[in-house]
Amino acid sequence: MEKLLYELNRLYLLPDSPAAQGGPGPVADLVSAAGVTRAIAIPFRKVRGEDAQHWERLCTVANGLQADFGFPAPAVSVASTGGFMLWLSLEAPVPVADARRFVAGLGRLWPDTLPPADTIGQPVELPPCPNTATGTWAAFIHPGMGASFADESGLDMAPPAAGQVAFLEHLDSIAPGQFSDALARLDAPAAPVAAPPPPAAAGLLLKDATLEDIVRVLHARGIEPTFRFTLAR
Predict the structure, then answer these.
(1) What domains appear along the chain, each with residue ranges and CATH number?
(2) d(CA 46, CA 101)
(3) Which domain of life, per UniProt (predicted)?
(4) CB 169 within 8 A of CB 89
């Protein structure tokens, strides 16, 4: 748990955040009293009547952030009640208003893909944590696992802490210059609409990864794929 808390603090939490001391939990406020944040946590919820489009929307955004803006790979978590969260780590805190401007700009760049910008800065689940009402868990997952969780309501059991650390320890934060350049580009009145990038490049999310692909990548990172029974259902 110590290593996990270190990674969460390194990537997402501010020193004066209650979560920085207490660790994962079902309700985490990622915004400081001064109105700044180091994490942009974007929810992708399943809409009634659709299949895995919420996962495909997440892939479009995650791949586009890397291909179009040069951002480092984000983290992905599955929510305890279903759906996904895309986690962007900022090296330096920004006003939550700028984080919302950024997501609103992405929404103009990739229409019908992102949630409303005012969802940014609201308290969120900080994985790994259980939902006391349902007994399911929110957890960070390997990006290639996402399609396998499209119809799931979280994990049925607590994920191994070592596996959660392994999903985070290789991630990097978005540099201040990268974020400010992206925000300026998105604020431009004539920002072009970009086509979704292909998902096959190294480091990008894999919408169509097979179970064997996922297990091979996990083994390469020294992670025992204890979720295999879930993926194979």
Answers:
(1) 2-231 (3.90.920)
(2) 23
(3) Bacteria
(4) no
- Three-state SS letters, 39-91: EEEEEECCCCCCCCHHHHHHHHHHHHHHHHHCCCCCEEEECCCCCEEEEEEEE
pLDDT for 153? 83
DSSP 34: T
What residues have CB less than 8 Å from 216, skipping those under 6 apart? none
* pLDDT per residue as tens digits for the range 118-160: 999 999 999 999 999 999 999 999 988 888 888 888 899 999 9
Output the six-digit token pair for 159: 């994920």
Structure tokens at 105: 């700009």
Distance of CA 94 to the CA centre of its chain: 18
Amino acid symbol at 82:
G
- 3 state DSSP class of 75: strand
Query: Which tens digits make up the pLDDT trace of 7-16?
Result: 999 999 998 8
- For 56, residues 6+ apart whose C-beta sits below 8 A from its C-beta are 207
Angle, CA 162 vertex, CA 13 and CA 159 arms, to 5°: 85
